[in-house]
Amino acid sequence: MRTDMLIGGEWTAGSGSTFPTFNPATGEVIAELPDATEADVDAAVRAAAVAFRSPEWGGLLPAARARLLLRVADLLEEHADELARLETLDQGQPLAVSAGFSVPNAIEHFRYYAGWVTKITGVSSPLSVPDADHRTVREPLGVCGLITPWNFPLMILVWKLAPALATGNTVVIKPAEQTPLSTLRLAELMAEAGVPAGVVNVVTGGPETGRALVRHPSVKKISFTGSTAVGREIGAECGRTLKKVSLELGGKAPSIITADADIDAAVQGNLLGGLLNSGQVCAAYTRFYVDGKRHDEFAEKLAGAAGSLRLGDGLHPDTHLGPLVSAEQVEQTARYVAVGREEGAELLTGGGRPGGELSAGFFHEPTVFAGVGQDMRIAREEIFGPVLAVMPYEDPEELVGLANDSEYGLAASIWSRDIATANRLARRVKAGTVWINMMQGLDAAAAWGGTKSSGIGREMGWEAITAYTEVKSIWTSHI
């Protein structure tokens, strides 16, 4: 298990102190890791800048860079079981999620962007200036800082890393301090694949490490996934220094269940969509707008299904829901459950921490509230835990206004047998992604990102290529 940082092709313990990473299923320390100082971050950025200009990377032909990314994907696939278990050990997500979703999605992204490397083209433009031609080319930005979250550490890193490398950039990665282990193992595999020294660097640490990376004058772009509060700070700092920035931030996704919806299908889809990774998903379905005539039926069935889920160590094959990532996340969830009760929501299931053999871990029961009001905090604030709020609506004409009455706009879900109604709602709901009659779906080809306080910019698809390149205009005189 790698616990050192990777700077300029060398593994180093750095020059600072250390911090622990925990197994959230047991509360035990897995390992101690370096807490990178400003000097460590500077060394990593300098190494990335040198690699960007090097012939081994900067002079690499597109076809060779594509083969390199494909080799990385092959190594990830060869080590898929190991990576999934490491992700589950450090983050807590059940193996069904890490092995069935997170790692395969990361592999898919490397292969998808390997395909783009040889197809990144500019355009030629018809000019009204006589005796001149004009064309554009897309060029890499330089050193990119990638700051990743703790909920899907490996997968979300690759959403950033694969297009950054496909377009010829070099990177300094700062993983969340709660979940650094799969990032370090990925960096090790990339070196094994033949990625030149300094192209991929990893510094570990907390908020101060991230601030040093954001403020470094040689970093040309920051890509951050995490909380809206931290995203605002990063956006402001990047604005002051005119760095490019992509922010994928918080969410409070509405799920609309119309009167004609298949309630059993909606319950199953929303159960999975709301409680995937124990609710630690930025696009988790967390506020359910259900036609008043179907509210009680939906709420009771959702609560029954949630209450039947098995909590446990994610490494156990029978586990449905693993732990939350940290003791702090359990405490935050418990506070919101208490607030929901105080504000008058009806608790249907859950609401507390399990005892017995799970008491040492960071577990919280899946919790469902019914009869939730639009202005209750559990309906408006991101909890990032297994807490679901069912809300009745009476007038379909008010439905879009209710769904859009949020500072967030990352994702939404609509459940209806009438596809015309579903598509009309999808067009009117303010969200970066809308899923109709399904739980969350993600694909490397489908753009991903939010509106309002859920972020700036897009990941995945061609949009990620544009996010890691800038356009240069080239004019040629005929004379």
Automatic annotation (TrEMBL):
Family, according to the entry, reads as follows:
Belongs to the aldehyde dehydrogenase family.
Taken from the record, one Pfam family name reads Aldedh
| Name of the featured protein | Aldehyde dehydrogenase
| Aldehyde dehydrogenase domain residues | 11-474
One GO term in the molecular function aspect is: oxidoreductase activity, acting on the aldehyde or oxo group of donors, NAD or NADP as acceptor
Task: Supply the alphabetized keyword list.
Answer: Oxidoreductase
- Report the active site residues: 248
Record flagged with keyword Calcium: no
Q: SUPFAM superfamilies, from UniProt?
A: ALDH-like (SSF53720)
Q: Which organism is it from?
A: Streptomyces tsukubensis (strain DSM 42081 / NBRC 108919 / NRRL 18488 / 9993)
